[in-house]
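FIELD: query
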Amino acid sequence: MPDAPTAVSAAARSWPNPRSAWIMVGMLFLAGILSVIDRAALNILVDPVRQDLSISDEQVGLLQGFAFGLFYAFMGLPMGLLADRVPRRNLIVAGIALWSVATIGSGLAQTFGWLFTGRLMVGLGEAALGPAAISLIADLFAPERRGRPISVYMMGQGLANGIAISLTGLLVTAAGAGAFLGVPLLGHLVPWRIVFVVFGSTGLIVAVGLLLFTREPARHMQAAQGPARTPGAAEAAYLWRNKAVLLPLYFGFATAFVVAYGASSWAPTMLMRAYGATPAFLGKWLGPLSILFSAIGPLIGGTLLDRSMRSGHTMKRFAILAIAPVFALPSVLAVLAGELHAATVLVASSNAVFSVIGTVMFATLQSVVPARMRGSSIALTLVLNTILGASLGPLMVASFTERVLHDPAQVGWSIAFVCAPFLLIAAGLYAMARRAMRRAVERGDGECAMLLIGETPR
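FIELD: result
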């Protein structure tokens, strides 16, 4: 018999103290920032790393995406299943410690293989964060109050790209001026290596803080039904029964993030190669602008979510997802701007769009899957995003530059040709999910529709 949505027990209706809940969100916010900084730093350091290790653009593309994504993708679902079964705070602490040590190791790498291995370990550590963090938030706040805390967590990951650009530009400029000479463990390193060691060390501090100042909340579980099943079997069965809604929802997200990863990985390099930008310029302009747009996006997404919940118009979230990818088109066409500052604004603007998509997508999943699947449902998005987005996006842009355009200076055109079609495909997939959900709601059947209707305030 298919698993039917079940009523939440009376004991599960109590929620943690708001102060402790927001402390946990604050720590997850910092962890989210670091998880992206450790990845994004390489995007600003492409040419120094390439020259120091004597590697090609395609090899850099492998480091940006495939190396990080290999373990991240394969371990995403196991980490999601684990997040549904073990203390999530401890899982996050272990993940932060692993990726931070791996980031330090990446800064000390002497060969492509060494750096590739470091990126693998970063991916393995970061696979624990997303599923556990969103699952924690779902147990810290009532359904009608989840929009803003999820948006705050997502804001951290969105802000991180701009923070990484600003801090990397600052550290590279300071290191070039000799600011780290005489500093133990850092003084003898070249600037790009200093960046990785500093970021990795900061992550270890956050891991300790999360362990000391937060505690695991009680899970708001639904009543168990039927005999025990193999881990993952119930989740796969639910996905298949509701595939008309969930498959285009998942693949729309993954397709959008082919662009998010592919464009953001190479946009700083495009500004440097095509417009003559320097790391100092990127730190002064692209970093703060990215932070600004990244802050705006989740606030818009969280506000729209909470308003739609309170008004009872829960289907609006699907309309937001279907429209949002189109607003990222100007950012992938920044090569046409013709002027450095204008191109920088266009590049930064994508942070707002993808923050809205991420916030709305994660909150939507929490409303259309059973409580037992909250961690694994997020893990599946991360797996697909990694396989299609993080692994393929940067590599496709690099390969288009090297094998089609045959000119590193034309990387901006590679971004445009590769990314624009994927944005339109993502919008189309989200529109399919919206139509399927609307039909299910109108008929009053389907598990996803029943869960969505059940969370609507009356």
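FIELD: remark
The first helix runs from residue 18 to 44.
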